[in-house]
Amino acid sequence: MSDHYSVLGVERDADQEVIKRAYRKLARELHPDVNPDPATQEKFKEVTAAYEVLGDPQKRRSYDMGGSSQFGGQNFGFGDIMDAFFGGGGNRGPRPRMREGQDALIRIEVDLNEACFGTEREISVESAVICTKCHGSGCADDVKPQMCQICKGRGETQQVTRSFIGQVMTSRPCANCQGYGSVIANPCRECAGDGRVRARQNISVKVPAGVETGNRIQMTGRGEVGPGGGPAGDLYVEIVQTPHEFLVREGNTLHLALGISMTAAALGTTISVETLDGPMPVVIKPGTQSAATVLIKGKGVTHLRGGGRGDLVVHVEVHTPTKLNKEQEELLTAFAKSRGEKEGESDMQRHDGGFFSKLFGR
């Protein structure tokens, strides 16, 4: 017996697409309608037999292991091979009425406090649920689906046509039963035979501490029930964190802008600020400059995985008064003189440190 791979002219590790292309090319060259020579016809039969084996993954595995190229005593004809080329091959047989449902997605808003410490939320979701009238069967009065008389339960119909390479058999889903192989003669009036209906249900969602916008919580089996009462898909709850009035989040770090007067910055003070844990004192050291920061450890957002919390960074902004009365001007002028400051005097700084280092990261 000739080696099937040699007959088709392909390597033993060739994939199915390469094998299919090789057979298609040889079939067009050797088909009796194109070349009626008896020797060529024998070659055509040999090529067809080789593809009957190598074109079927299960038969190919058996052949590679040294087994028979025939399964269960059944030979597959030329029409079956051409099915694979023209859409008839692949998923044979009736398709099941019961299929898995789709996943569902819903978005919920949480504030910064809920995102940091976690919360439990009751949400209302409208989705496909199993029909309580027929319990998912789609049939009224507990009557079972009946075999389709058109396709005789196969779920598909076949049609034979002729082409330049011979007879071509194509298979299509049965139009009478839509490929199920059975017909529901008396559909459930509640779900119209689908086995499911649309309904609104309340679901409790546990939001873990540390979530942020874009995170999704997967709730297995809480999505859409499948057709025919099939298993439900999953429900994904996507988090949208709403902005806080004072605090800005960056990962697990919180930022807070704190404005103080220039006298408070010069003399130093203690100011109470609002945090997620309530009011907290922040110590401003004497001589604090604008854009200085005060780090408060462990008062940021909870780490989503691993526990612990980030930090709170307080950004100090020194406010210079824009309007002064005469008395205030005189006091400031006297203060400047007492420090030996002269009007119009400035202190230009080198760019290798200080302000420019902070501004440009140098």
UniProtKB/TrEMBL annotation:
GO terms for molecular function: ATP binding; heat shock protein binding; unfolded protein binding; zinc ion binding. The keyword Signal does not apply. Gene3D superfamilies: DnaJ domain, Heat shock protein DnaJ, cysteine-rich domain, Urease metallochaperone UreE, N-terminal domain. InterPro entries: DnaJ, DnaJ_C, DnaJ_domain, DnaJ_domain_CS, HSP40/DnaJ_pept-bd, HSP_DnaJ_Cys-rich_dom, HSP_DnaJ_Cys-rich_dom_sf, J_dom_sf. The keyword Cytoplasm applies. Residues 3-67 form the J domain. GO terms for biological process: DNA replication; protein refolding; response to heat. Keywords: Chaperone, Cytoplasm, DNA replication, Metal-binding, Repeat, Stress response, Zinc, Zinc-finger. Residues 118-200 form the CR-type domain. Signal peptide: none annotated. It holds the Pfam family DnaJ_CXXCXGXG. GO terms for cellular component: cytoplasm. SUPFAM superfamilies: Chaperone J-domain, DnaJ/Hsp40 cysteine-rich domain, HSP40/DnaJ peptide-binding domain. This is Unannotated protein. It comes from freshwater metagenome.
